[in-house]
Every structure is written in structure tokens, then in C-alpha cells.
Amino acid sequence: MKLLFLGDIDTTWIILIVLAILAFCAFCVWLEWIIGAAIGKNVSQMTGIILGIVFIIFGFSLITGIACIVYSQKNANAPININTNLNIDTKKCPYCAEIIKRDALICRYCNHEL
Known about the structure:
Strand order of the largest sheet: 1-2
Number of domains: 2
Helix content: 40-55%
Shape: rod-shaped
Largest sheet: 2 strands, antiparallel
Strand content: 5-15%
Radius of gyration: 28 Å
Distance between the termini: 90 Å
Number of strands: 4
Structural class: mainly alpha
């Protein structure tokens, strides 16, 4: 087969070139989805929607935007741990609910004896 810009080329090479281009496109789509998912997993629901729309409108990628929106919506049902500041060495004061050391005898915030 004779192509205008390549000269004489075997049909097998054309098939290999087309398959390589398709494989590269599939890799790019996968990579964009992974990037969007990584961003979407780490943001709140509304931030994920806003980022997704920004990605789509400003032409970053439709796939990245959709992934960002999808994964941020999955975070909506995740339980929120309110005791993130508490560890084994701290507790809440029963009077003022501030976090204090577990061995404290007097709260440093409200000065009540514990």
C-alpha cells in the first residue's frame, strides 16, 4: 500500500501504528480517570462538583472532571470522626468539653477539679 506521506508501507505496519495510537489513547484516558479519582477522594462533595465543572469548562479533561465529581460524591456517606484530636493521652473535660491531658487534676480552661 502506498500512502502519500509515508511512501510504500506494509499493511501490517499500518495496523501496528493504529493499535499503538489506540493503546496510547486508552492509557491517557485511564491516567486522567486516576487523577480525577485521586482529587475527588480527597475533597468534599461540593468542592468535587466545582472542581469537576472547572476541569470540564476550562478544557483540562472531560474524563478528569467526571471522575472528580463521581469520587467526591462517594465521600458524602463517609462517617466523620469528631474525635480526631483525642488520643490515648487526652480526654475531654466534663465541664467545658475542651481537650486536656488524661492525668490532669484541674482543667486548664475552666479551672474545675476533675
